[in-house]
Amino acid sequence: MLYLASRSPRRRELLTRLGLEFAVLELDVPEQRQADETAQAYVSRVARDKALAGLARVSGEPDALVLGCDTEVILDEDVFGKPRDSAEAAAMLRRLSGVPHTVVSALALVSASRHEEAVSVSEVRFARLPDAVIDAYVDSGEPFGKAGGYAIQGLAEAFVERLDGSHSGVMGLPLHQSAQLLATFGLGPLAAGLPTCATEAP
C-alpha cells in the first residue's frame, strides 16, 4: 500500500495524476533547520523525516510504502517557509520581487527494507511587484500555508516572468521525479523501464 505523508491538498492532487491508489498520512513533523545545514540539505532531511515518521505510523503493514515530500523557496541560502502573518507574507514577496529564487522539492520514498530519494531544483523569476500588487495578493489570503508566501498554481502565476525547472515541483510535488522513484518500486507510469531517479537542476 502506498501512503503520502503530507497534509497538502496540492500534493494529493498531483499524486493522483500518476494514476495510483494511495492513502494519506497527516503527520506533525518538526521543520527546524539545523545550524550547520545547507538550505537544500534541510529540505531533503525534512522530506526524509516525514517519510520515516509515516513508515513508523504504518509499521504493522509489511508492504507499506511511504512518500515524504518537502518544498521550500530559497533566496541567498535563506529558507522561506510558510508566512506566519500578513506582514511576513508581504516581506517575503518584496524580497522575491524582480529577482530569481530557487524552489527545492525533495522526495523520500521508504519501505521496511528500502530508502530512495530524489530532488527537483527549479529557478523562478518574478517580475517587479509594486507594493499595491503585493498588498492585494496578501489580502487575497492565497499566501498563507504556502512556502515563500505564494502559490504558482494560483494568482501568483501572473507574477512569474520565467520558470526553469518543474512547475509541479514548485507546486509541491515534482511529478517526473516522483514517477521515477515509484518506478524503482515497480509502481506508476514509468515502471515499464525508463531511467531511475535523478536530480533536476535549472
TrEMBL record:
Catalyzed reaction equations: dTTP + H2O = dTMP + diphosphate + H(+); UTP + H2O = UMP + diphosphate + H(+)
A Pfam match: Maf
EC numbers for this chain: 3.6.1.9
Active site residues of this protein: 70 (proton acceptor)
Gene3D superfamilies attached to this UniProt entry: 3.90.950.10
InterPro entries: ITPase-like_fam (IPR029001), Maf-like (IPR003697)
Compartment(s): Cytoplasm
Protein name as annotated: dTTP/UTP pyrophosphatase
Species whose genome carries this gene: Novilysobacter ciconiae
The organism's taxonomic lineage, starting at the top: Bacteria, Pseudomonadati, Pseudomonadota, Gammaproteobacteria, Lysobacterales
